[in-house]
Amino acid sequence: MSETNTRFRAHAQTRTARERTQSEQETEDSDELTCPECGATGITVEKRGETVCEECGVVIEDDMIDHGPEWRAFDSRERDQKSRVGAPSTKTLHDKGLSTKIDWKDSDASGSALSARKRSQMVRLRTWDERFRAKSARERNLKQALGEIDRMASALGLPENVRETAGVIYRKALYDDLLPGRSIEAMATGSLYAAARQGGTPRSLDEFQPISRVDRQEYARAYRYLARELGLAIEPADPAKYLPRFASELEVPEAVERRARELLETGKSQGIHSGKSPVGLAAGALYAGALLSNERITQQTIAEETDVSEVTIRNRYQELLDAHEQAEQAA
């Protein structure tokens, strides 16, 4: 073993010396260039891709090809992350994106259309490619679930990190044998709902109802089951996290959102948020903030955008205003 290590070390030193000698030779060759204007030999090849004479400043050659990377790395970890070794792995695909996929376009590399014989051949190849990518029942289950998660996340406008987290939750539930007896769609919806709350971009259960393929009761039960069996650390939903999205959809001024946030903070300090829907509190806070900011917005408009009843908005905004008045009197 020691002789092998010694031979490997000697080979590495010889290779390093050869590369250093080659680099020095290339540097000497570049220094021996002669300027066509003044005849000077002080030619430098700068990093911006230009060959410049140091004496007269004439640019001898520009737009040179830079064979190095276009990114910067300050340590070994960043260098490994940015190295050109293919697409990064992702938990949003059942095979983590490590396999290849035949494109659906019926054209060759030059963009020309394929013949009828080649098209039929590509159809068969795509069919077998899909079968080989998901060979076992577990892989087919995971592929279908991750497709559902991606579809619902796109409809709800959830970011990529939430989709990754949802993929991890569902994958863990699959490997822990938590899926027998439960539908794939319900568990996928429950995983995405849990991931959205963990990622700080919560969505209400009612918002999943138009896009999920199962009933609200079924995916709500699946979420509670996942949270209990996997021990998910999910904090109670904060009403203030719904404000930016609702304010953007309603196109209200920033002053309204700021007043609504102040009302929610005052309400939480007095404990009126306990046992109440965070979505209803956010909708009521926006309506109260609009009233205090002299902005004309109706309860019906807020109810349609937030999917909260007008009765809930009236109750919550009155409670928030009462808490605000009590805090001012105590101060």
Outline of the structure:
The protein has 331 residues and is an all-alpha fold. The protein contains 13 helices and three strands; from the N terminus they run αβββαααααααααααα. Sequence repeats lie at residues 147-230, 241-322.
Describe the structure.
With 331 residues, the chain is mostly helical. Among the domains are: 39 residues, no CATH class; 94 residues, Cyclin A, domain 1, CATH 1.10.472; 92 residues, Cyclin A, domain 1 (Orthogonal Bundle). It contains 13 helices and 3 strands, in the order H-E-E-E-H-H-H-H-H-H-H-H-H-H-H-H. It has a 3-stranded antiparallel beta sheet, with no helix packed on it. A hairpin with a 5-residue loop joins strand 2 and strand 3. Helix 6 crosses helix 8, helix 10 packs across helix 11 and helix 11 crosses helix 13. The longest helix has 30 residues. About 3% of the residues have low confidence.
Short key terms for the protein model shown above:
3% strand, mainly alpha, Cyclin-like_sf, 331 residues, 3 strands, Cyclin A, domain 1, Transcription initiation factor IIB, single chain, 3-stranded antiparallel beta sheet, 13 helices
SSE topology:
Blueprint: H1 2-31, E1 43-45, E2 51-53, E3 59-61, H2 76-81, H3 116-133, H4 137-156, H5 160-175, H6 184-198, H7 205-208, H8 216-230, H9 243-250, H10 254-269, H11 278-292, H12 299-306, H13 310-330
Antiparallel strand pairs: 1-2, 2-3
Helix pairs in contact: 4-5, 4-6, 5-6, 6-8, 10-11, 10-13, 11-12, 11-13
